[in-house]
Design goal:
Order of helices and strands: HEEEHHHEHEHEHEHEHEEHHHHEHEEEH
CATH architecture of the largest domain: 3-Layer(aba) Sandwich
Structural class: alpha/beta
Helix content: 40-55%
Distance between the termini: 40 Å
Number of domains: 2
Low-confidence stretches: none
Mean pLDDT: 95
Length: 391
């Protein structure tokens, strides 16, 4: 058998094969998926902005004024007025001197880490960090070290005496995307300051969602902006558009402009998308009710799930993992929900550790209370069937 076909067959047999679905129409709680109406609880559109008419209008007006593409990299002719305006507004929003746009969060993390570190330097990462942070550490050629998930004390013990001649970077998610829990950011910030290390915070799932003003994990913990000197945020989740940014001081941003290969050697994002994101940023600032509603829906879901005895993690964020253990069981649960018209993705290794397969349930401010109750009713039926099967 061809080695590629053999590997694909192995994935199928291990219940690890991934398949795409085709969605018709705009994003939202109710989707047309492979031609079927589905109630979706697996999107990262936390504030329900991905199809907001105001963003659509800003995108259309931006395209009419600036065209559909930037035409070149930022350092050639691709850095356009909407990019510059968005960078300034993002920097002000997160309380940093400057921000720099990247095409994706993945490219941002690869660009930052490889620009700052090299052979002889060291990067420390939480064991459950996002793949982009892990890959950024690996391609930097720095010494790659990992500490137990959320264990700031373990990190502190392992760091040892800093070497002034070498660079050290600590990198962590703010909200862990598969578990929904938070990094111990106050402790990480203290350790980084004391050990003269950089701290990179990937707040992809925190910005827009956490904190009274949506400024993310720093605000949630009551920390001053800049507790993490290097902040990465994405725009395709709570902000409902596309792209990412890195925020920090003047020297950091200028260094990335000079040295971040994933910034230098790629076409700038469409300026119309930057205009849509500027509109989204205004909504995030001016409509705190979206965050309040999201918190209420999370609390409502957790109350119901706890009453049913469902094996949820301790997450208080919109990411609510339902632990299945095996990949086979996670797939079975996902398919049974899909039969009831509810879409929840089964997350399996290597995205999560072996034995940690789960349903990744995510809530949005666009969901209604009735839709959450429908999900709980389906989970109740699923759980009764599951426990009956086990008996």
């Amino acid at each position: 058998m061809d080695p590629l076909a053999q590997e694909l067959e192995r994935r199928r047999a291990a219940h690890l094969y991934r398949a795409r679905r085709t969605v018709a129409g705009p994003q939202g709680p109710e989707l047309q998926v492979n031609g079927r109406p589905m109630l979706a609880f697996c999107s990262n559109d936390y504030l329900g902005l991905a199809a907001d008419p105001r963003l659509v209008q800003a995108l259309q007006q931006g395209a009419a004024r600036y065209g559909t593409g930037s035409g070149a990299a930022h350092l050639v002719t691709g850095h356009m007025q909407p990019h510059q305006a968005l960078e300034e507004e993002l920097a002000e929003f997160v309380g940093r001197p400057r921000a720099l746009l990247f095409s994706t969060g993945y490219m941002a993390n690869l660009g930052v880490i490889s620009a700052l570190l090299g052979p002889g330097d060291t990067i420390w990462e939480d064991r459950l960090n996002h793949a982009s942070l892990i890959d950024g550490g690996l391609i930097s050629r720095a010494r790659f070290r990992r500490y137990p998930h959320g264990d700031a004390a373990g990190l502190e013990r392992s760091l040892g005496v800093p070497d002034a001649a070498k660079r050290t970077l600590i990198a962590s998610d703010g909200v862990f995307s598969m578990d929904g829990d938070l990094a111990p950011l106050p402790e990480l910030a203290r350790i980084a300051r004391q050990r003269r290390a950089w701290l990179l915070l990937d707040d992809a799932h925190g910005l827009g969602v956490l904190g009274a003003r949506g400024r993310g994990t720093e605000e949630h913990f009551g920390l001053d902006p800049g507790a993490a000197p290097i902040l990465m945020g994405t725009l395709g989740k709570a902000f409902g558009t596309f792209g990412a940014f890195v925020a920090g001081d003047e020297d950091l941003i200028e260094t990335l402009i000079q040295q971040a290969r994933s910034y230098i050697y790629t076409t700038a994002p469409p300026p119309a998308v930057a205009e849509a994101t500027r509109a989204s940023l205004r909504i995030v600032r001016e409509e705190p009710w979206r965050r309040e509603r999201l918190r209420e829906l999370v609390a409502r879901f957790r109350r119901g799930a706890e009453q049913l005895g469902l094996p949820l993690t301790a997450s208080r964020t919109p990411i609510q993992p339902l632990l299945a253990g095996s990949a086979r069981r996670a797939l079975r649960w996902s398919r049974r929900l899909e039969e009831r018209g509810i879409l929840v993705s089964a997350i399996r290794p290597p995205t999560v550790p072996e034995g940690g397969a789960r349903l990744r349930i995510t809530l949005s401010a666009a969901h209604s209370e009735a839709q959450v109750e429908r999900l709980l009713a389906a989970l109740e039926s699923l759980w009764k069937q599951e426990t009956g099967d086990a008996a």
